[in-house]
Amino acid sequence: MNDYTSKDKLVSDLKTLISDAEELLRATTTQAGEKVAVARQKIEQSLTEGKKALADAEKVVLDKSKEYADVADDYVHEN
């Protein structure tokens, strides 16, 4: 698997993880108890960090895509 494919898969996996975690949080909103509250707090923190990692990964993928497109365009125009 090349670097671009790895990053693209990471972005996809992070989106899925974030979606699943948000669904879990919605499903447990009526649950009470200290353990549930602590777990929800940890999940919310992880979601915040995951969303930042996702944004960073998407930026890398987008930047690399533009870079590859520019290289291809230069090649076509030179040949």
Describe this structure in words.
By secondary structure, the chain is mostly helical. It is 89% helix and 0% strand. The chain has helices spanning 3-27, 34-78. Helix 1 runs antiparallel to helix 2. The protein is rod-shaped. 3% of the residues are buried. The model has no long low-confidence stretch (mean pLDDT 83).
Could you give a short description of this structure?
With about 80 residues, this protein is an all-alpha fold.
List the helices and strands and how they pair.
Layout (H helix, E strand, L loop, with lengths): L2 H25 L6 H45 L1
Helix pairs in contact: 1-2
Structural class: mainly alpha
What radius of gyration results from the CA coordinates?
Answer: 19 Å
The number of distinct β-strands equals 0
List the total number of helices: 2
The percentage of residues in β strands lies in: under 5%
Shape: rod-shaped
- Compute the average pLDDT: 83
> H/E order of the elements?
HH
* N-C termini distance: 29 Å
Described by its quaternary structure, the protein is: single chain
Q: Mind describing the biggest β-sheet?
A: none
> Which runs of at least 5 residues are low in confidence (pLDDT < 50)?
none
Which bin fits the share of residues in helices? Answer: over 70%
